[in-house]
Write a structure and sequence with these properties.
The protein is of the alpha/beta class. The chain contains 17 helices and 17 strands. The longest helix has about 45 residues.
Length: about 500
């Protein structure tokens, strides 16, 4: 009998050994409870997963250990003990290394002769799985916003182009003393705000059309600092600290300016009792560990830091700040799109944006952008000046009557010879009978799309250049790489922007 008992003990120890190996592979724990929910045994290879050391757990009940969170566990153990039917429990718990997510199965093990009946709770650490699920939800949310914004962009941007254009023409026809001038100005400003809202949605979804150029980051930050001064009233102080020769980056100018402005305005709004906002530039070398976390390539980056001494944020708020429409501001004080727009622009530019904050201790945002060496000419570059007209004939193909009329008037006033067509047959008829230097066509056209129209016109006039216009943000990426001597202009656009882009097409 003794030998049999020793053999049983050896078999039990071997079974426990196999159990520990299995738990090590699954980051798990096994709890054994009696009928009263008392901890009998705890098996795990990672004691940091336990709420208390196992020596403190043995002999205590679930109610004594978990307190107010114990009800669902102790009741589940009781039900399984009585019925033998397994149950699954998922929960979040504060352990030695932070809050972790667990999922566990409460089961009754097979009866062992000579041993009282017990219940096992087989627990697995699913924190990493939860994190991946949250990333997936965020990605799906971003995709949904992108589909929504892209779906409405074409028609909405056509409308905004019309409103912006005719408000410009209306302002041209009104004298400075006209009582109606302020009304026309407000119409234009409203259209610009609406355009900005669409732009923010597209930026978050990484579908906004960006026009990157190499910029000296110090020049941009210094310029924004000068613009911000009038917006900041005492007792808020703005400091601008520029690291000498920090370098440049290739990014959309207006996009980068919007990112910095949004960070600064958010900082201002967080300091209702005053404080200091610091805009700072730095260089950073991203190692492989941080690069993997931030979805970056290892290497050198230019960093823009926006730091404030404001109210700060707690962890739950910090985790959601880049979500679209999430805001802690009062209704009417914010759309919740500023930081999500900044996130989209930075990511679309190959960078990363991160935030650190503690309630009552302010917030620090860091924007990482790929480093590009700059030349003196790049560093001194300023706002783009519209190109002077050098003559030429432009064929405008646009099915929207209002936009077609606007583009015609804009280009005629700039001195170009302008032909207009409302569909592809009319466009090809003009291309057969007239010499054309530039084809300006909407991408989305009836009968034949703008890309096909361009191909057909080039069969007739191989040297013609093409300027595509569209309210769909994806058309840029789809068209330009495969069409030589072509450019893309997103809607809505102003007269100045259109004339500048057309002028650029006539450069050698």
């Amino acid at each position: 009998m003794a030998e049999s008992g020793d053999g049983g003990a050896d078999e039990l120890r071997a079974s426990e050994g196999r159990l520990l190996v299995l738990l090590g592979c699954t980051k798990g724990i096994v709890f054994e409870f009696d009928r009263d929910g008392r901890y009998l045994n705890i098996w795990t290879q990672d004691d940091s997963l336990l709420v208390r050391p196992r020596e403190e757990l043995r002999g205590k009940t679930i109610d004594e250990v978990l307190g107010k969170d114990a009800a669902r566990f102790s009741s589940a153990v009781g039900r399984v003990f009585e019925t033998g039917v397994p149950e699954t429990i998922e929960y979040e718990l504060e352990v030695q290394n932070g809050r972790r997510w667990f999922i566990g199965d409460v089961v009754v093990p097979p009866d062992v002769p000579g041993r009282p009946r017990t219940v096992l709770y087989l627990v697995r650490d699913v924190t990493e799985k939860k994190a991946l699920e949250e990333q997936l939800r965020q990605a799906q949310k971003m995709e949904a916003i992108g589909q929504l914004a892209g779906g409405i962009a074409h028609n909405f941007n056509n409308i905004l182009t019309t409103i912006t254009g005719y408000s410009e023409l209306l302002l041209d026809g009104l004298g400075k003393s006209s009582t109606h001038r302020k009304h026309a100005t407000r119409i234009r400003h409203a259209s610009e705000r609406a355009s900005g809202l669409t732009s923010q949605l597209l930026a978050y979804a990484r579908k906004r059309v960006l026009i990157p150029e190499v910029l000296d980051v110090n020049v941009v930050v210094a310029s924004i600092g000068r613009m911000l001064q009038p917006l900041l009233e005492a007792p808020i102080t703005l400091r601008v600290e520029l690291e000498p020769n920090v370098g440049g980056t290739r990014v959309d100018r207006s996009g980068l300016e919007q990112v910095i402005m949004n960070l600064a305005i958010n900082a201002r709004d967080a300091m209702t009792d005053g404080g200091t906002i610091t805009l700072r530039t730095e260089t950073a070398v991203v190692d492989e560990t941080f690069a993997a976390e931030a979805e970056l390539a290892p290497g050198r980056y230019v960093t823009i830091v926006a730091e404030d001494t404001g109210a700060g944020m707690d962890a739950p708020t910090l985790a959601r700040i880049f979500e679209p429409f999430f805001t802690t501001k009062m209704i009417g004080k914010g759309t919740g799109l500023g930081l999500s727009m900044a996130y989209g622009i930075v990511k679309q530019s190959g960078g990363h944006i991160a935030a650190q904050s503690t309630r009552g201790r302010g917030t620090v945002f860091r924007v990482f952008l790929p480093y590009v060496e700059i030349t003196p000419r790049t560093a001194a570059s300023g706002p783009v000046v519209p190109h002077e007209h050098k003559g030429g004939t432009v064929l405008v193909v646009e099915d929207n009557t209002e936009i077609r009329g606007l583009v015609h008037r804009y280009l005629r006033s700039a001195g170009y010879d302008v032909l207009v067509a409302d569909d592809s047959p009319h466009a090809l008829e003009l291309a057969r009978s007239r010499q054309i230097d530039l084809l300006l066509t909407d991408v989305v056209m009836p009968i034949m799309g703008g890309d096909v129209i361009a191909e057909q016109v080039r069969l007739l006039q191989p040297n013609v250049r093409v300027l595509y216009i569209s309210g769909y943000p994806d058309d840029d990426a789809n068209l330009i790489p495969r069409v030589a001597s072509s450019r893309f202009l997103p809607k809505p656009f102003t007269r100045q922007v259109l004339v500048r882009e057309v002028g650029a097409m006539f450069e050698p």
